[in-house]
Amino acid sequence: MDIAVAGAGYVGLVTAACLAEKGHRVACVDVDIEKVMLLQRGMSPIYEPGLEELVRKNRERLRFTTDYAAAYRRADVIIIAVGTPEERDGSVNLRYVWEAAKQIARTVEKDCVVAVKSTVPVGTGDELARWIAEYRKHPVHIEVVANPEFLSQGTAVNDTLYASRIVLGVESPHAEKVMREVYDPFALPYVVTDRKSAEMIKYASNVFLALKISYINDIANLCEIVDADIEAVAEGMGMDPRIGPRFLRAGIGYGGSCFPKDTKALCHLASRCGYELKTVRAAIDVNEKQKLKLIEKARTYIGDFHGREAAVLGLTFKPGTDDIREAPALANIAVLLEEGANVKVWDPVGMDNVKRIFAENLTYCATIEEAIANADLCFIFTEWPEIRQFDLCQYAALMKTPLVFDGRNCYDLESARKAGILYESIGRKQVGAAESAVLVETDER
Ligand SMILES: NC(=O)C1=CN([C@@H]2O[C@H](COP(=O)(O)OP(=O)(O)OC[C@H]3O[C@@H](n4cnc5c(N)ncnc54)[C@H](O)[C@@H]3O)[C@@H](O)[C@H]2O)C=CC1
Ligand SMILES: O=C(O)[C@H]1O[C@H](OP(=O)(O)OP(=O)(O)OC[C@H]2O[C@@H](n3ccc(=O)[nH]c3=O)[C@H](O)[C@@H]2O)[C@H](O)[C@@H](O)[C@@H]1O
């Protein structure tokens, strides 16, 4: 089939490459000329394992362009995968979706299906369908399908090739037939429903995962108070098949481009309809507080951060991606800088993106050792394998005071104890806590 994909971001680019891999001819369109030029040279503008190789491998069936008219004119299916960022009030900014819809309506010259892969509020597909039918330039039949995406960054290629399900929100058997032609080569299970239900499946899934994380973080905080261990608790809970082990990792909260915005968007949608989603509001509140949990812990050890040498390991919102959107590290770094700390950071792929926000206010280090050398304290915000595998004795050897605040529970407590560091993590016992009181008293700034 001839497929056009609007948007060459995390979703659009991965989708385009995977569709080409499965034998379709794909034109991937973006308004960002720099992205398109990089892709035309076989280079990926984002860090996503396996993506660049897949793009190069399929270059005969996969092209990149800014010429949307040429890409859409004769396409069988056009997939919209543009961004849907959040507004200040939590609602969804659909500007890019509407722009893509206008471009489609102006250019399509034969019957086609428009599949909306961007995450959009329930009802958007219906509105788009009405609008495109009214404003299309040529007298062609354009059907709109809701086709939400469930990939995770860092594993996006695999998640797409081996997705748990393909959700199709269709309003006609014809639209379903066309979409099945797109996805049949993937041999994955389908959920076929109406457009609004498909749009709701996306939000309900993301928000459920966010709830699960906030719940385990809430329990982790209680574990600290009652002297229980969240790792054991999560293991014991996860073995119940009704609960499952995934998304029970306690930490400093969820970040990324989707959970924060999608939780707020669903609450906004509900309140517009006069309904309050209390569970989701609570999950958002827990997450907001959780983000700065380590900062609060650190204060109890060292008072304030003025003049302190702080090391920050891990900047991206999760490992396996260079994406720093809503990364908990950013909120923490902002506090440290505001209170006058000198901050040295390390991340294997996220530093260029962080430079665009904090510029010269941070010291960017090539190695973990360089970041922690002579530091008064160290924060861990992303569980990169390099951090997990880092020799714990090095903290004691290189830092001025080996005070480590781990927001991702990277190390086991026994190893931390043996390495002689003061180690605070999430929902677990402190290691070396007794000595810590001394730190504030022997303050030598
Ligand atoms: N990032 C993720 O892991 C997932 C994202 N989603 C949803 O997918 C959508 C896209 O997200 P991302 O790929 O992360 O966004 P992104 O920001 O990485 O990419 C969006 C791309 O669309 C381009 N664009 C904007 N207007 C355009 C137009 N008129 N024509 C062509 N291209 C245009 C932008 O230049 C940008 O390259 C969002 O609705 C998001 O909520 C869904 C599942 C996973
Ligand atoms: O709509 C989206 O954009 C996507 O959002 C998430 O994917 P993603 O944001 O890439 O990453 P996740 O692995 O879900 O992690 C999100 C955040 O939750 C945190 N997390 C995750 C799992 C966990 O147990 N604990 C935890 O704190 C991660 O550190 C990260 O900050 C969903 O997992 C995808 O299914 C969905 O398609």
TrEMBL record:
What organism is listed for this UniProt entry? Parageobacillus caldoxylosilyticus NBRC 107762
Reactions catalysed: UDP-alpha-D-glucose + 2 NAD(+) + H2O = UDP-alpha-D-glucuronate + 2 NADH + 3 H(+)
Read off the NCBIfam families from this record: NDP-sugDHase
Q: Name one GO biological process term.
A: polysaccharide biosynthetic process
Q: Name one GO molecular function term.
A: UDP-glucose 6-dehydrogenase activity
Please state what the protein is called.
UDP-glucose 6-dehydrogenase
| UniProt-annotated binding residues for NAD(+) | 30, 35, 84, 119, 261, 325
Q: Which SUPFAM superfamilies match?
A: 6-phosphogluconate dehydrogenase C-terminal domain-like, NAD(P)-binding Rossmann-fold domains, UDP-glucose/GDP-mannose dehydrogenase C-terminal domain
Keyword annotations for this protein?
NAD, Oxidoreductase
Q: Which residues participate directly in catalysis?
A: 258
Q: What is its EC number?
A: 1.1.1.22
Pfam families this protein is in?
UDPG_MGDP_dh (PF00984), UDPG_MGDP_dh_C (PF03720), UDPG_MGDP_dh_N (PF03721)
Residues in UDP-glucose/GDP-mannose dehydrogenase C-terminal domain copies: 311-413
Member of which family?
A: Belongs to the UDP-glucose/GDP-mannose dehydrogenase family.
Q: In which pathway does it act?
A: Nucleotide-sugar biosynthesis; UDP-alpha-D-glucuronate biosynthesis; UDP-alpha-D-glucuronate from UDP-alpha-D-glucose: step 1/1
Transmembrane stretches, by residue range?
none
Kindly report, in one word, the top-level EC class recorded for this enzyme. oxidoreductase
Task: Give me the residues that bind substrate, please.
Answer: 202, 247-251, 255, 318
Q: Which domain of life, per UniProt?
A: Bacteria
Instruction: Tell me where the signal peptide lies.
Output: none
